[in-house]
Amino acid sequence: MKIVETVAEIRRELQTHRSKTIGLVPTMGYLHEGHLSLIKRARKECDIVVLSIFVNPLQFGPNEDFERYPRDLDRDAALAKQAGVDLLFCPSVREMYPHEILTEVRVRKVTDRLCGASRPGHFEGVATVVTKLFHIVLPDRAYFGLKDAQQVAVIEQMVKDLHFPVTIVPCETVREPDGLAMSSRNVYLSEEERKQAVILNRALTEVKEQLEKGLLITADEVNRYVRERINSQPLAQIDYVETLSYPRLEPIHHLDQRPIIVAVAVRFGSTRLIDNLLFGGKEESACSGQ
Questions:
Q1: Fewer Cβ atoms within 10 Å of its own Cβ: the N or the C terminal residue of the chain?
Q2: One GO MF term, please (predicted)?
Q3: pTM of the model
């Protein structure tokens, strides 16, 4: 595995591999098993695997955790090498944004709700940095975890609308043994917060059972059920609970055969966790977010 820090160097390294299949796994680092599962999938499907580690300031709000976001490049590099990464791209903020950036990428409508509403500017930052990474690496395939299903929907829409020559590969979420979705931010949780945070997956697992039995027939019923379960934990502070169509993320009333997402964002102390359930349509999966 080779570690590169500049745009010029990663382009030079990849120039001789353009006839091969190049897979990109974009991350903000502090790798966990969820990230490693993306790398392993890319390793199986691609000739060259590029892992990017970049904590992107554009997707953090003014009162969010950019400065304290966990970072450990030496640890990440060791894990990446073991998982089979060929090129580790870890640019600095100055390298990615050498001057004031006057251009941003904005995906409308699918960013109007959920984290797009509660974190203004977040998905503009995500779409902009992913666009930059796609132009720098020129991957054939790019791997994203369904732990943030809205992010996947945003990137898929962007790729479709702008004709990016890249295949987006959504990958299932990896969870801890007790069901909590693996996330770099889990390290922020106190022992008691960590204990109570498992209510997110439990609530969504229970609502899935209710949906399979046909006991819930409207989005409001689903939202009310999930809210009641989450509020059973005294440290949980709900940001949102929403049931929407997926991947368009449009409001719905009655549930039918179309795919839906039941999405939640909840704070435990200063730590904001998201989790979600994708249900219906041809495929069903439980997935959760950072």
A1: N
A2: pantoate-beta-alanine ligase activity
A3: 0.93
